[in-house]
Design goal:
This protein is about 25% helix and about 30% strand. By secondary structure, the chain is α+β, with helices and mostly antiparallel strands.
Length: about 120
């Protein structure tokens, strides 16, 4: 694993992938696509965090949180490398807001939220 200023490079089984910190185009929260998995996990985690209750529109609530999210500091460089390896070198972008982390795939400008998780682990 190579860590250089401004980017992280991971080599594994002859493959190499480079992630630039806080790179890529801006994301319009109103145009992102949410997978069913992302919304199901968000609903589950939101209700668990709030002691049950009701969440009438998980997608609308998630979009509001995403609108305030920032990419900076959402995941450490080491965490990015670990996730890149764990996810078979499928790159993703990470955004944080109020303890919620959005994992987003950028497929040529089509942004898909793959999952929404709580930032409960110590950052490395």
């Amino acid at each position: 694993m190579l860590i250089q200023e401004g980017k992280v490079s991971a080599r594994y089984a002859g493959k190499e992938s480079t992630l630039k910190k806080e790179s890529g185009p801006e994301i319009d929260p109103e145009k992102v696509i949410f997978t069913r998995h992302a919304l199901d996990r968000f609903r589950e985690r939101f209700l668990q965090l709030n002691g049950g209750g009701k969440l009438s529109s998980p997608e609308r609530t998630a979009r509001k949180i995403l609108a305030r999210a920032t990419e900076e500091g959402a995941l450490s460089p080491v965490g990015r490398v670990k996730r890149l390896i764990d996810n078979r070198f499928q790159e993703a972008r990470y955004f944080m807001s109020n303890g919620w982390r959005f994992v987003i795939n950028d497929n040529n400008g089509i942004f898909t939220v793959l999952t929404i998780e709580r930032d409960i682990f110590k950052r490395q």
